[in-house]
Amino acid sequence: MKVLKTYPEKCISCHVCESTCSNLYFKEDKAELSCIQIHDETNPPDMNVCNQCQACVAACPTCAITVSNQGVVMISRSLCIGCLMCVAVCPTNSMRSAFGKHNPFKCIACGACVKTCPADALAIVQE
Amino acid sequence: MQRKVLAEYRYDLKPIVRGYNKRTLYVNVGDKQIKEKPVSDMMIDKFVGGKGFDLYLMWHGVKDNTKWNDPENEICISFGPLCGNTSYPGSGKSIVTTISPLTGIPVDCNVGGHFGPYAKFAGFDALELQGKAEEDVIVYIDGDKGIVQILSAPDEAINSHILAEELHQEFAGEKGNLQHVSVVSTGEAANNVLITCLNFSFWDKRRKVARLKQAGRGGTGTVFRDKGIKALVVKYSGLKVDTNDPVDLPTLQKTGLKLHKEIEAGDDDQCRMHQVGTAHLMEIMNDYDLLPIRNFKYGQMPEAEGLHSREFTALFTQGMADGCWYGCSLSCCKAVDNFKPRTGPYKGQPVCVDGPEYETAAGCGSNIAIWNPKDVVEINFYCDTYGVDTISFGTSVAFAMECYENGILNKERTGGLDLSWGNADAALELLHQMARGEGFGVTVGQGVRRMKKLFVEQYGADPKFLQDIGMEAKGLEYSQYMSKESLAQQGGYTLALKGPQHDEAWLIFMDMVNNHIPTFKDKAEALHYFPMFRTWFGLQGCVNCPGTTSNQPIMPRLMNRPKFPNTCKTTWISTKLSPENPWISMN
Ligand code: SF4
Ligand code: SF4
Ligand code: SF4
């Protein structure tokens, strides 16, 4: 399974990953629209991102959530009707919703943030 | 299948504005007239939608002396302004009304399935069916193209588990779009008896079957078949989160997500709607002496352990997104997969059975002293596919069994059937007879009120005794709660407009389990406000369940269950009740 792995002890809370992700998928620089979210109230910071556990797959009433060959949990936008039931069941709160947007979103382990992270706090790994 | 188009109507597709299309669809299957009617602002202001629109249309469509089987009787199905939203649990209901063959007055049923939302998004706030077709027809609404058709329906099966499946396949067109179709149908029993229902389908993508939800009460299926309608079919494929055009999508999403999260956090420890649906009530009702047993004679029996919800939990496939409309995280519509009936025409064939829900488990289980959950599942399956209402079936068979116990009936009079308590084979045979239109099953299928009259006239039974044991009011069979000690529930039953159904004032739990309304004043108040907000759901197109009971954080409070010893009836109060803060426990 392909997953974005986080190393909080290396994270310097620069939030570059959030910018990268939200810019990539929403063309906006907004932490709420990033699949990875860095909460730096704690030390080391909490790096919240999907661990591809698949708990959301069974909850989706339209079968819009599937698992790719590489083990990445993906949402089909054409099937999703925006009920947000997947958001409620995610055990790590990593299925995101932005109220007003039609569909939830989550990390698809694309690796874009790994490349921009200046502190090597992120990596795409096979688990 | 080659179908003849008997009539066709084309309409303009328009987006919904704030939950309304501002038009209804009229179809006369007799003279083949199809037209749309405007919805005025007055209708919206005064009648809101759902049951309100149904009754408005019926008011103008029938006369005060219209009988259930007159061509002018109508079946109205309306959806309500909230129906079809995907953000908030329990928002996919259709409300069906017609003049009931059992009571002679309007009956209303609140039903899930995808028909309501799709028919609404196809372009109509309500559907009004009138007339009688000479030969069987299907009414088809294509919400993608804007076409309504009356089609010939010569050959197919009538029984719902087959017909719904076939019509999903036929009307879906290209593969993979089965979930964009929904079917309303009934079954063979609706040709022969009065205690019938309509089945509203939704395509279950995981199980790959058409699931069936019932507009159960009052004989709607019999009216449907009397009109020569075999099915209604709707197709709509454009569903999105904002199709219903909510005023404030972000707030709706936020509120819906809050409830999803509360359900997710609390349900496993509370009502277990995810695991077992309303059947979780079985042991509570038995513990509190409220479970109808042997025709409402007893409220509690050790044998009821056999119908404990854990037995149904074991039969239901777990871990499925079992909502009857998208976005319902309560997911209470459980199913038994690969069930092989041991009797009847589908003996040995694996089928998917919807339910049993509480009413079915009590009516077709404890009330006729059947304690084997698999027998209940089999009765449930045949009731659904034949189009029989499980509640009226349970109460009618219970009445017949008590008459048998008291010598009013005997084998000679039942055509050889031994109607002793708990005889599941006999109960199933009654059902098969209803479908075949023969034998004593047809008598039982007339319902309790007509049986009473018949047994007095034909067998010289004591009318007073039959009046005592025959659980009907206005001609409708009681639903499955013991109301002997509950003045509030007795009021709830007998004041309900359609007859003794619990949906208007389901006060049994507040009154008898939680003791929340101990005084006469409390009970009287509850009999006022409870039907008010239940009616509100029926106007809006929502389910009568806690998911939409109030805007309070309901689930954790509502679904708390007392831990109690078996016979204890102590007071248990989790939250203060007042008319401003009414809460109900479950249903
Ligand atoms: S979004 Fe949540 S539930 Fe879904 S795979 Fe990721 S971590 Fe698991
Ligand atoms: S929001 Fe979309 S992906 Fe999530 S459960 Fe609902 S339909 Fe499925
Ligand atoms: S791996 Fe891709 S999708 Fe996941 S957080 Fe990083 S940029 Fe976003």
Helix content of chain A: 10-25%
User: What oligomeric assembly is this protein in?
Assistant: heterodimer
Regions with little confidence, pLDDT below 50 for 5+ residues of chain A = none
CATH class of chain A: Alpha Beta
Q: For the record, what is the CATH homologous superfamily label of the largest domain in chain B?
A: Aldehyde ferredoxin oxidoreductase, N-terminal domain
Q: How many helices of chain A?
A: 4
Query: In whole angstroms, how far apart are the ends of chain B?
Result: 41 Å
Number of domains of chain A: 1
CATH class of the largest domain in chain B: Alpha Beta
Number of individual domains of chain B? 2
In which order are the strands of the major sheet of chain A placed? 1-6
Largest contact between chains: A-B, 19 and 28 residues
Gyration radius from CA atoms of chain B, angstroms: 22 Å
CATH topology of chain A: Alpha-Beta Plaits
Number of DSSP strands of chain A? 6
CATH architecture of chain A: 2-Layer Sandwich
**CATH architecture label of the largest domain in chain B:** 4-Layer Sandwich
